[in-house]
Amino acid sequence: MRIDLRSDTVTKPSQAMLDFMQQAKVGDDVFEEDPTINQLQQLTAEMFGKEAALFCPSGTMSNQIAIKAQTQPGDEVICDEGAHIHYHEGGGIAFNSGASTNPLSGTRGVFTAQQVKTALRPANIYFAQTTIVSIENTCNRGGGKIFDFQEIQRIRQVCSDNKLKLHLDGARLFNAIVEVNRSPIEYGAEFDSISICLSKGLGAPVGSLLIGSNDLIQRAYRIRKVLGGGMRQAGYLAAAGIYALNNNVTRLAKDHQLAKEIGTLLREFSFVKQVLEPETNILVFELERSVSTSDLIHHLQEESVFAFEVGPQQIRFVTHLDLPSDTLEKLRSSLARFKY
Ligand SMILES: Cc1ncc(COP(=O)(O)O)c(C=O)c1O
After folding, report:
1. pLDDT (tens digit, 9 = 90+) per residue, 111-125?
2. Is the peptide bond before 138 cis (omega within 30 degrees of 0)?
3. How far is CA 204 from CA 15, 198, 239, 277, 318, in A?
């Protein structure tokens, strides 16, 4: 059986999710008449203690709308250098918002309130105006690292002191939530805008929500339409999201456990130089310099195990709900057969 460790985005809807989708009541969402989308938006807004939420086709669109709605052209966005909004959204902040990014060198995607303070631009005409800080939690390129909640609160304080907005790219926020003893409401209280994804570890085929105040979501609604993201009978997709939130959150802990077990397994092989300690469902490891990354990826592929190279000598494995139950054993035997 295929073991696809490239990403948690490869997951397909289960039969139970498909059944739930099929019975959804739908309407034209551009007319705000899709009852299932309205239900999902209300559910997620309430979950995070916010006034409103907007269903978007992708996490990228939710993030880009959040930046566009909270900046003016010429502004600057502070984020980590590996942040999805800066590194993996095709230069979207410049393209959509006419803003620039001020990327910080964090540790596995996590930066400090002090780094934010230091990065703030003096208020004079030579500099772009910093207007928003964006945190990613968990940090994708940081190997699923969890952003410490108290540091988030310190960053919130810097933002409040300097009249900056604070955005959370929470594509994998539920992975953090099941690991730390905090509720969505607590996260909601610290941020002006939050994007969450349904199509990653939660197993829905499509969808993301942008969550915030009524005023923000009203502006977001207009921007989504401009970007071509106004959907019609998308309640079938929203139903997948409702199913995912009701059934697939607590089980994320199993994915984290498997990632830890794979980390322990990898350390047994002498061709592995280092494993970044997995905190959630993403595991990044580094090969010894004498070993070819593409040779290992190719070898695994021949054995129906799929993975990505994410940096020099670095490979990423992502665990998720569609992996077969014997993944660890299959991986152990495939790795043992690798000749280098
Ligand atoms: C941290 C993070 N933010 C945003 C996104 C974008 O999500 P989408 O692929 O739905 O646009 C991703 C995608 O993997 C991600 O990892």
Report:
1. 999 999 999 999 899
2. yes
3. 12, 5, 9, 27, 16
Superfamily of domain 251-336: Aspartate Aminotransferase, domain 1 (3.90.1150.10)
> Which residues does a 6 A CB cutoff place in the pocket of ligand 1?
9, 58-60, 63, 84, 136, 140, 169, 171, 197, 199, 208
pLDDT tens by residue, 209-223: 999 999 999 999 999
Q: Which atom of ligand 1 lies closest to the CA of 169? A: 3
| Fold entry, domain 13-247 | Aspartate Aminotransferase; domain 2 (3.40.640)
Which mutation among 6, 60, 65 tests ligand 1's pocket best, with the greatest number of atoms within 8 A of CB? 60
pTM, to two decimals: 0.97
DSSP-based three-state secondary structure for 124: coil
Q: Which residues pair with 302 in a beta bridge?
A: none
Which tokens go with 96? 């959509």
Three-state DSSP at 98 gives coil
Cα–Cα distance, 141 to 128 (Å, whole number) = 27
